[in-house]
Amino acid sequence: MNRCRPFLAARIVALSLVASRPALALIVFDPNNYVQNVLTAARELQQINNQITSLQNEAQMLVNQTRNLASLPYSSLQQLQASIQRTQQLLAQAQRIAYDVQQIDRAFATSYAPATGSQANAALIAGAQGRWQNSVAALQDALRVQAGVVGNLDTNRVQSAALVTSSQSASGALQATQAGNQILALQAQQLADLTATIASQGRAQALESAQRAAAQDQGREQLRRFLTPGQGYQSSNVQMFH
């Protein structure tokens, strides 16, 4: 009996020590909860990535809009206007019968009108000389316009090359559109030069044809006077213009 007493005392002390210490929390691993946490974190990370991508796309859109709204640094307007003005000045310098409807009507009602028996011989001769001078002046005007148009060719070549280069290096839609518009303006200027050339040549040809027609009519009147007795028409004054 005495031997068991120390053993019992030791157990009582041990139990009292265990009872006096706080209970230790047990760690329990829940796989389902862990998976849900991982999925939630992955979804949040994906949302963050989507937001970053959206911000990057918006930034790129702003960059593109800035490029599209940027104006073309090159302009050929001044050079094109100068070329057109040179051609217009040459047309405005037309000699004698200009490009004016009323002036043309007056000239054909007087200088190019059919010869009449009441006109003096000196008047017939002066009219023929005037018509011939009109034809010569028109031919000179046509050559001057042609020379001016040829002079514009070098300017047009330089502007065309510059505009094509600007179009190819355009950084945005606005620059490309502006370059295209300037190329169209250059083509319009070239068409204007072509129109002016055709108009000046047509004017010269028309006046030459009118001069020939008037000369034939005047020649018939002169011949009639020469053959009509009592006209007092001296053979030395007969002037035939062809």
What does this structure look like?
This protein has six helices and no strands. The chain is mainly alpha-helical and 242 residues long.
Mean pLDDT: 81
What are the segments in which pLDDT stays under 50 over at least 5 consecutive residues?
Answer: 232-242
Number of strands: 0
- What count of helical segments does DSSP give? 6
**Which percent range describes the beta-strand content?**
under 5%
Q: How are the SSEs placed, and which strands pair?
A:
Elements: H1 4-20, H2 31-68, H3 77-92, H4 101-110, H5 121-168, H6 173-227
List keywords for this structure.
single chain; 242 residues; mainly alpha
Brief description of this entry?
The chain is mainly alpha-helical and 242 residues long. The chain has six helices and no strands.
